[in-house]
Amino acid sequence: MQTMMKDKLKVRMLLSREEMGRAAAADCAARLRELLAQQEYVNMIFAAAPSQNETLAALVAAPDIDWTRVRAFHMDEYVGLATGAPQTFGTYLREHIFGLLPFAAVHYLQPDAPDAKAECARYGELLETYPADICCLGIGENGHIAFNDPGVADFDDPKPVKIATLDEVCRMQQVHDGCFPTLEAVPKRAMTLTIPSLVRAKYMFCSVPGKSKRVAIRRTLTEPITADCPATILRRHPHAILYCDRDSSLGL
What we know:
- Strand 3 (42-46), helix 2 and strand 4 form a beta-alpha-beta unit.
- The chain has an eight-stranded mixed beta sheet.
- The longest helix is centred in the first third of the chain and has 20 residues, at 17-36.
- The mean pLDDT is 96.
- Helix 1 crosses helix 2 (53-60).
- The chain is globular and about 50 Å long.
- The chain has helices at residues 17-36, 53-60, 89-98, 116-129, 168-176, 195-199, 214-222, 246-249; strands spanning 2-6, 9-13, 42-46, 70-74, 76-78, 105-107, 134-137, 161-165, 189-193, 203-208, 240-244.
- The protein is built from eight helices and eleven strands.
- The protein has one domain (2-249): Rossmann fold (3-Layer(aba) Sandwich), CATH 3.40.50.
- It is of the alpha/beta class.
């Protein structure tokens, strides 16, 4: 494993997706145990994407964690799909972690809520009540975190959760990931935690494997810290770690 620093962001480069996932999960689990020794409950935010598969699998297998004292959130959800539809992020997380561990509570964004703005407000109130301690996230092909795409991302966003219109690059990534058969099938709107809600987490563990993320990684580490590449905000966070595999970090 190679390690480098870019501003405040620690970058760890592993050879394979599996090694990356194990490293990210080991660091996250160690921090989680430390927090559980200091406080009654820990609040965690999770990303839902194939890039998180290895990290979540290793985290589920991590020993000596009292998950009954962990409250779980997720960072985004499509607008308009049915609850339980296979493409929803809630379904992904239920299958990969939420349904596999005895969390104190799992708070879902409802994709088919009758009023998406009201659902954003409800979820924002939960995040205010239970401030995030840990955020496990990824980076999109266009440099987004959650569904804060370029043009949508606001580093000073006044809302904790909002409705975002998804750009074509973001929607095409969902096709590349195998989540939808065609671009036309991908919803055009989603609910997303905003940038301030994400970086409010005390600790951030960011897993970004794969050749398709190589440009996003380079932009995250080399471009000015602006909303043109939303993931650059990680370089300002005091306790964020970015994990890459050989494919995503080639050329660094």
